[in-house]
Write a structure and sequence with these properties.
Length: about 210
């Protein structure tokens, strides 16, 4: 599904990684590991097409990232940052907002699915809350549900449960496992500082070695 070959990244003349290769198959849940400062988040941003590539190539379904219309590519390879941004209004309005974009034109907002995920995440009465009142963990849950209902092929998670308490973390992990296994053409790439979480969610690990 998603492949990267011979990637290179530098920061302030320091080589973070070069010659980095990655292949993610359908159904996989890949944990990206490495010490602080090794560029794990930068790798996810490169895979998502959010940062330009300094070297190498990323392909989705065998087609180079550079040959995809970028809105279409990013609808299929979606990045969840640790601190997601929102446009304002209620949780329901925030969940609906991406369905007004051209790339999702013609797709109805799946309210029933959103509610089902919120129940699974133990937030059944979440929709009418203002996004400005959400805690960091609640914001992560909103971003997660927004991604799940948009249904990309590859979901890139950058410490996406770091602000959650243990119960909410386990609920989010269960939701992601259910989502990734619901159809055959989905995969997760997950950066997590928690070895126990990586052991629970990953089918394999990819070490990123700093240069």
């Amino acid at each position: 599904m998603l492949s990267a070959s011979d990637l290179r990244r530098t920061v302030a003349d320091r080589v973070l990684w070069e010659g980095l290769n990655l292949n993610v198959a359908a159904g996989e849940r890949v944990a990206v590991t490495g010490p602080s400062g090794s560029g794990k988040s930068l790798l996810l941003r490169a895979l998502a097409g959010l940062d330009p590539l300094e070297g190498g190539e990323v392909t989705l379904h065998g087609r180079s990232q550079s040959r995809w219309p970028m809105p279409h590519y990013r609808s299929q390879v979606m990045y969840l940052p640790q601190r997601p941004a929102f446009g304002g209004g209620s949780v329901l309005e925030e969940l609906r907002r991406p369905f007004g974009l051209k790339i999702h034109s013609g797709r109805p907002f799946p309210l029933d699915e959103a509610q089902r995920w919120l129940v699974a995440l133990n937030r059944p009465n979440f929709l009418n809350l203002s996004v400005t009142t959400l805690s960091g963990g609640e914001g992560q849950l909103l971003a997660l549900v927004r991604a799940l209902v948009l249904g990309p092929s590859v979901l890139l998670l950058d410490e996406a449960t770091a602000s959650l308490d243990p119960d909410a973390t386990r609920a989010a992990e269960a939701a992601l496992n259910e989502w990734s296994g619901a159809v055959p053409d989905r995969a997760l790439v997950w950066v997590s500082h928690d070895p126990a979480q990586r052991a629970r969610v990953a089918t394999r690990e990819l070490p990123v070695v700093s240069g």
